[in-house]
Amino acid sequence: MPLSFIVRALAIGLLLHLYVGYRIVPALTPWPAAEIGMIVWLAASYVLIPLGMMARRARRDDASTTAWAGLLTMGLFSSLLVLCLLRDVVLVVALSVALLAHTSVPVLWRDLSGVAVPVLALVFSVVGFVNARRRARIKHVDVPIDDLPSALDGFRIAQISDIHVGPTIRQKYVDAIVDAVNDLHADVIAITGDVVDGGVEQLSAHTRPLGRLHAEHGVYLVTGNHEYYSGAHAWVEEFRRIGLNVLLNEHVVIRHGGVPVVIAGVTDYSGGHFDPAHESDPTAALAGAPADATVRLLLAHQPRSAHAAADAGYTLQLSGHTHGGQFFPWNFFVRVQQPFTAGLNKVRSLWVYTSRGTGYWGPPKRLFAPSEITLVRLVHGASRAHGTRGPAPSPEARVRSAA
Question: How far apart are CA 48 and CA 42, in angstroms?
Fold first, then answer.
């Protein structure tokens, strides 16, 4: 990492901490212990956040403690900063109104709002921590497909995405996800990237439980941008070693009830920046697929692969990457880069489902963007209601054939 970048990051961090201190500490003056505590915490936060970010990449086991401390602090400071900014916006508006009305903003109101900021930031962080650390809930999504063959009505795909195995997400967390997914007995399991945040040597023991995933027609994985940050080639080899089918701009054909289904996967949208051979290409991934396949499923880490996927003639794209924003207010910034933040959307004839992710990145914190294990079910186009539930196909209707 360039020294100039580190210097700029530290300078910006210092300014942000000074801003929060300048705006909040005076409101705590009536409570000396709280005032001193806030000053000490802000000083510690300024040190811990960069240390925590650096410790995320360290290979030593004892670095995990530093990473935990830094990432928890980052989550709390993020809420503190946002709430401080919102308070100042409200105060400016209130002051403007008061000036027009030839009155003043009550000093007590200003002081109490200053006290409320750290209290609310702490509450949001505690709630966000609980949401992030509990096992992701199962989310059911029905996707209506026109002219869907009867044998595929009720075809189920379990999707997990953005686990981000790293310093705060370890084997026990992954084991719980695997158990929950296997209990769904899906026809296919899709892993849509960003499985890891670190190297194979450091994290392979913690990703190993993914090898226990089982579905009748297989488990398929595509790379996310974080695989490229962490050594994508080594991770592709490791994922294949534990039994996962990694799709790199390629597809397989499975048969369900005698009907062909194309399952394609592309490298991450940014993969070509790390390796020209990993340039993401939805069209190439579909090359040679049977023309009579009604369902053409694409696994693509980033939703912004959707326009190329629609051009190529896919039926459904499963993506992740966005985390649904993970915690307020970052959900509002996702649309700057991605066409969708979360949920089921459409690009012309292509359905796109964007998962909020099954783990989390950075701070162990999720607020207003719950993690999910998604069970996607294909239904006849006439069943337009996405929440409709119909009978699953009988075991006799499930036929596996080698691609």
Answer: 10
